[in-house]
Sequence to fold (420 residues):
Amino acid sequence: MNLLSKDKSIALYAALVSFGTYVFIFGFRKSFTVCTFDGLTFGPIAYKTALVISQMLGYLLAKFYGIRFISGMQKTNRYKTIFLLTGIAWAAWLLFALVPAPYNVVFLFLNGFPLGMLWGVVFSYVEGRRSTDFIGAALAVSFIFSAGWVKSVGGWLLLNFHMTEFWVPFCTGLVFAIPLMICVYGLEQVPPPSLEDELLRTTRVPMTASDRKNLLKQYLPGVIAFVTIYLFATIFRDIRDNFSADMWKEMGFASRPSIFTETETPITIFILILMGAVVAIKNSFKALMVAHVFILFGFIIAGLSTYFFTHGKLDPFWWMLFVGLGLYLVYIPFNSIFFDRLIAAFSMKGNVGFFIYVADSVGYVGSVSVMLVKEGMTLKIKWTQFFSQSVMILSFVGVFITLYSIYYFLSKSRTTPLIQ
Fold:
């Protein structure tokens, strides 16, 4: 086998096992969102909203903690970290099923905190390679595929095994446990980046507090811009992900659990092909600009499809598909292309984990805040109406912030030596 064929084989293998790992991790996170928990409340707010907020608070604190933990993580015994964190999250679902509502809300926090660390751990296996665009795209689209598939599995368990909604998350984890162990074993077999990878994409190293501070200081305007974009993308994704079951129900699709997979699968395939194609762009700065273009078009697609839907010119199915495509065109580049190419282009001393956890921490603050605002409104509006109105506003603003980010990094490229 020649060197080129070997590199392609490693890239394909790494893409498959990292995709599988995160898909099965997702099985321990989001299956509860297929349940509506009708009629239950947690004090003054809806019970399901309380569950989502509790889990997201766990995620939120994990992202802040992860800025230090993930960016400074050594690359030994990472499989133990994955199993430990997933095991804690699964145990939280067991307690959720056993403890009566509404007192079990706290276990969503205990589920969210360990799971919030896992993206950085998994991505650390694949960053800093010539093939990271392709591998990262496969890993990132696991968000999209698993968001639909996990809900479909949860809905199937609910309809066919006549279990209560409270046991769905734990049983979904039971379905995914052995496949997860197999994929993590496979992930451990991925070889480290080659010398040529490190020359082209910059060696990725654990970061100290001083490294983190210096990097933020040097690129602060750009960091603020892309963190703001990511904030909008996270709000988009989380509302759609957490409350898509409620929106489908509002639009008359409650008895069709396969609807989640029907919309997410074509999005997954399209995004994977699009993001994976960036691997052909050797110049990391050009690839960074291409990622900005994807983000720009994502905002435009999300905004326009929502405009047509709210004016009765787009069917609900196609709206959910196109708005999902748009928001993932904004969200996925950050989890596959953007940060990896940013570090490579500007020869930064650091790793993707640092940037993604800075962005994620702000993103989850935004998501929790938006849900609290929605729930606290005197006039209760449906999730479909709230989501569609939010998408149009944030898409409009997002276009201008993305254009500023393009301008900033173009300007920075003229004063900073770049890796070609």
In short: The first helix runs from residue 3 to 26.
